[in-house]
Design goal:
The complex is a heterotrimer. Chain A is α/β, with parallel strands linked by helices. Chain A is built from 6 helices and 15 strands. In chain B, a hairpin with a 2-residue loop joins strand 8 and strand 9. The chains are: A alpha/beta, B alpha/beta, C alpha+beta. Chains in contact: A-B, A-C.
């Protein structure tokens, strides 16, 4: 079982974000970065699959500047066998351009399974996985909250609103991983030392001109919060009155 | 011509509310250039009877794909059909719902058409250079304007961002064949698992009542359930800590790694307001917080706060909401 | 906390990765429960398997014995992160790694190493270290625990040990005892004693107001008979246990900074959000002084530790240098915890906040592994060449 997991390096979401001088994007200088949450779940699931089958290889792939090697090393220290870095000055906001570059790399890799996180925590879009599947002509299953694979076949549970579906699909396939499926392991200290010696291949990403740009970034208007209307059950009548007359939601 | 194609989502032989929202959203774009809205719906035979609802909400044409193999949604069939239609129809834009179905479907259609897309947008409009859309990013801590310069412009619209508006149009029905045989789809739905019935889904409910560790024990979650019950139209959510502790299923988790909701009213019970949680609910219209600790960060985003023990305040609120509802 | 002096630039990518992994573990598994454990007076045993899986026990010992083979700076960063959770958690790891695994590694036979080290790294065997006695703390040379060699080569040990971290949890104890009757400290040797041996008894020490999330016990050994191969063959004289203590003290120098960082983070975030007289208390000069002092001392302590770790990695460090770091860092951490407690006002006395817990813990850390005063005398001797110890 050969599994590719595509991961993205994103800023720590606990950060206080600042807007760049031109008002277009988030100024990411000085922020702490890590592998995006859902991508961590995907790496964990991939490792569990190969561990359960007792065979296979997990390859992690990331597109972006040299700094993404940090996220790749983290995945290697969790247990992935090798890493591919697709070099680009930055990650384009155009998910289709990213999917094209990934598909070009993954096409000839002979992967049984290509995994993504449900979405990256910065762009929160979740389009790259399904787009890559489409470009590779592979079946796609997104928002997977349970996954079983055996040779040639997969079964997954997908969460829908107020329901779930159980789907079957042939391999090779592309899946994107939702919350709740597995908590990513902590890179063990031995794993961190071993990761130094694992292969990490770096090559230029093949990126098309982008047709999706971020033209403005704003902080949402500060909520005029902090209005405490009282203490204990005694405050309930006033709350109900405000919900009826002021907020008009009751 | 600047017609807009909209994908109208169905499940279990019925249109979903997000379909009406998507048609409403598509209408705003088409009206700017005097274009038409064409709604595409797929389902088992009989689904055509639901088409007129789309007409009432602004569809000029309803493209109905009926097939016995489409009782369950098939993303492959839907993607192939929508992409084929989008190509033939020369649309300026294609609109999807950013629902579970739509989030999966829209990028496939975009890739088939060889264009990028803007996912999960709060609003969008035609601008000089293309279509611009507002999209929350960075754990919902910023709002970004994305500009799409490819044609068609593809967007998926966050559930709840557009309220379905009546806007009667012709709603002329045209039937369409699926672009591929549903029997040849590779991903096959083996089983649908229904969630708890009688409660609206988190993403769609106008009111969300959510509980955190401040409830102190799993059994106290029934107070949250009862409050939701009193509102009548409320869904129940929870924090990550509560889901991790197994008090509630993961699917109820609201936050950075869980569901994102934008209800009219969000009631946070015993929730301190960690950034992880705020990321999932800060776009709610009105936020009420009930928490023992008056320093809790949730009060900074709450429109109305009550400092107090959830176990004491919530039953009182439940009773008061019941009374208020009776009064209506 | 903010890396005010860009100390990360002194660390390698692996050292940072090690720290961050342990940090995340502590954030997820220690911080949510530690306040409650402290109030209940219980060591959080449930985190031991996770710590073992992470590889923190004996992390600076070689890979051939199932350990992570980290350098000493990475090891120190682990101690820092563990103590950011709680001194009790760091103490557990210090004892397991520096006071039990280390002596087996340094003084044990190859068979002892092969048998114990992998299982201890995996957390399957927990150890404790018995040196201090009820009447011999700062003066271990005076110990009265005695091991007598029998005609068949086995040993019979009698004595009592006190203030033994992990004492009631451990499956093995490293017991230090004199081996001849002339009471000469040169006869002190180490023994690996399984705690289920007849005559071995561990009793919880009750009534602690510090290190409450840690197991501290009293050991009583009454005619405890252990086989010949329980002896650590290469141990000899008081020097052997003191070498272990140097290892542990090195970790404590880092650990104390972890407690200080926890207090500083708590205090600075509280200062920015707590409103009094209509503005954040962080805007008042008195609180700014507190925070500025805390930040300065933490940065200095970190620089001290990084250099000490580099010296240790090069095999160049001296026990006196370790004394300086332990003495300084525990001292400043104790002060920082107290100032943080004060900055937090009345909230500072609650278990919900960490400052008072760290403050109380650090009083033990101040006293154990060579009291502050003893390290003062070590440094005094290093400066003057004159011995100011009692004897």
């Amino acid at each position: 079982m050969k599994i590719a997991v595509c991961i993205k390096r994103v800023p720590d979401m606990e950060s206080r974000f600042r807007i760049s001088g031109d008002g277009k994007v988030v100024d990411e200088t000085g922020l702490k970065f890590d592998m995006s949450d859902f991508d961590g779940y995907a790496v964990e699931v991939a490792l569990q699959i190969t561990e359960k089958l007792g065979q296979g290889e997990v390859v992690v792939v990331s597109l972006g500047p040299d700094a993404v090697q940090e996220a790749l090393r983290k995945a290697l220290s969790m247990g992935a066998a090798r890493a591919i870095h697709l070099k680009a000055d930055q990650v384009p906001r155009d998910g289709f351009a990213v999917a094209r570059a990934l598909a070009a790399e993954l096409e000839s890799g002979g992967f049984d399974l290509i995994m993504f996180g449900k979405h990256a925590m910065d762009t929160m879009s979740g389009v790259v996985g399904p787009m890559t599947a489409e470009l590779l002509g592979l079946p796609n299953v997104s928002a997977v909250s349970k996954l079983d694979v055996e040779q040639g076949k997969g079964t997954a549970r997908r969460e829908l609103e107020g329901a779930a579906e159980i789907v079957e699909f042939p391999l090779p396939a592309v899946v994107s991983i939702d919350e709740g499926i597995a908590r990513p392991r902590y890179p063990s200290l031995k794993g961190i030392m071993a990761a130094k010696k694992k292969p990490l291949e770096s090559k230029p990403a093949q990126l098309d001109p982008t047709r999706l740009e971020v033209t403005k970034t704003e902080l949402p208007p500060d909520r005029q919060g902090g209005r405490i209307i009282g203490e204990g059950a005694a405050a309930v009548p006033e709350l109900v009155r405000l919900l009826q007359t002021e907020a008009k939601v009751l | 011509m600047a017609n807009v194609l909209v994908f109208a989502e169905t499940r279990g032989g019925d249109l979903r509310k997000v379909a009406l929202e998507a048609v409403t959203a598509a209408r705003t774009l088409a009206d700017r250039d005097g274009g038409e809205v064409h709604a595409l719906m797929l389902g088992a035979p009989g689904i055509a009877s639901k088409a007129e609802q789309l007409g009432r909400h602004g569809a000029d044409v309803v493209l109905v794909v009926e097939h016995p193999g489409l009782g369950n949604h098939s993303a492959e069939v839907a993607a192939a059909t929508a992409a084929a239609r989008a190509k033939e129809g020369g649309y300026a834009a294609v609109v999807f719902s950013a629902s579970a179905q739509g989030k999966d479907l829209a990028p496939r259609v975009a890739a088939k058409l060889g264009v990028p897309m803007a996912a999960d947008v709060l609003s969008f409009e035609k601008t000089g250079s293309g279509v611009s859309a507002q999209h929350p990013g960075y754990a919902s801590k910023v709002v970004q304007t994305l500009t799409l310069t490819a044609t068609p412009a593809i967007v998926s619209v966050r559930p709840g961002a557009y309220a379905p508006a009546a806007n009667p149009k012709a709603g002329r029905i045209e039937s369409l064949a699926p672009a591929m045989d549903p029997a040849s789809a590779r991903v096959v739905v083996k089983e649908m698992v229904q969630g708890r019935s009688g409660r609206p889904d988190l993403g769609e409910a106008p009111v969300v009542v959510s509980g955190g560790r401040g409830l102190r024990a799993a059994e106290n979650f029934k107070l949250v359930e009862e409050l939701a019950e009193a509102f009548g139209n409320a869904a129940v959510g929870c924090t990550r800590a509560v889901a991790d502790d197994g008090w509630r299923p993961q699917s109820d988790q609201i936050g950075q790694t869980g569901r994102t909701v934008s209800p009219q009213l969000y009631v946070a019970v015993g929730i301190s307001g960690a950034i992880q949680h705020l990321a999932g609910m800060r776009t709610a219209k009105t936020i009420v917080a009930i928490n023992r600790d008056k320093e809790a960060p949730i009060f900074k985003v709450a429109d109305y706060g009550i400092v107090g023990d959830a176990l004491e305040v919530v039953p009182a609120l439940t009773a008061a909401v019941r009374d208020a509802k009776k009064g209506h | 906390m903010q890396d005010f002096y860009n100390i990360d630039s002194l660390l390698s990518e692996e050292e940072i990765a090690v720290r961050d992994s342990v940090r995340r573990f502590v954030d997820d598994n220690v911080l949510p429960i530690i306040g409650e454990c402290y109030v209940e007076g219980r060591f959080p045993k449930e985190i031991v398997p996770g710590l073992a899986e992470l590889g923190v026990f004996g992390a600076n010992l070689p890979e051939e014995y199932g350990c992570a083979g980290l350098n000493n700076v990475a090891y120190g960063l682990i101690m820092q992160e563990l103590e950011r959770g709680d001194s009790g958690v760091r103490s557990f790891a210090s004892v397991q790694g520096a006071l039990v695994m280390y002596p087996i590694y340094a003084f044990g036979s190859e068979e002892q190493k092969q048998h114990y080290l992998p299982k201890m790294a995996a957390g399957e065997i927990i150890g404790c270290f018995g040196l201090t006695e009820p009447d011999f703390g700062s003066n271990p040379a005076g110990m009265i625990t005695m091991a007598r060699e029998q005609s068949d080569g086995s040993w019979v040990i009698n004595g009592a040990k006190m203030w033994i971290t992990n004492g009631s949890t451990a499956q093995v104890a490293i017991v230090w005892a004199k081996t001849n009757d002339d009471k000469d400290q040169r006869s002190i040797r180490g023994f690996i004693v399984p705690t289920n041996t007849t005559g071995f008894c561990a009793k919880d020490q009750k009534g602690k107001l510090s290190l409450r999330a840690s197991d501290t016990s009293e050991l009583v050994l009454e005619d405890v008979r252990v086989p010949k191969d329980a002896l650590l063959p290469k141990s000899g004289g008081l020097k052997s246990p003191l070498m272990c203590l140097t290892q542990a003290r090195y970790g404590i120098s880092w650990g104390a900074l972890g407690a200080a960082i926890a207090c500083f983070e708590e205090a600075s975030s509280y200062a920015k959000t707590r409103i009094m007289f209509d503005r954040p208390i962080g805007g008042f000069q008195l609180q700014q002084l507190r925070l500025a002092e805390m930040l300065t001392e933490i940065v200095k302590g970190q620089l001290l530790c990084v250099q000490l770790g580099r010296l240790k990695d090069r095999g160049e460090f001296t026990p006196q240098q370790v004394s300086l770091a332990k003495r300084n860092n525990v001292h400043i951490a104790t002060d920082i915890a107290r100032e943080a407690r004060r900055l937090l006002g009345a909230n500072g006395i609650l278990a919900e906040y960490s400052a008072m817990r760290h403050m109380a813990n650090l009083e033990s850390v101040y006293t154990y592994e060579g009291t502050h005063d003893v390290h003062t005398l070590v440094l005094g001797q290093a400066v003057t060449g004159l011995n100011a110890f009692g004897a």
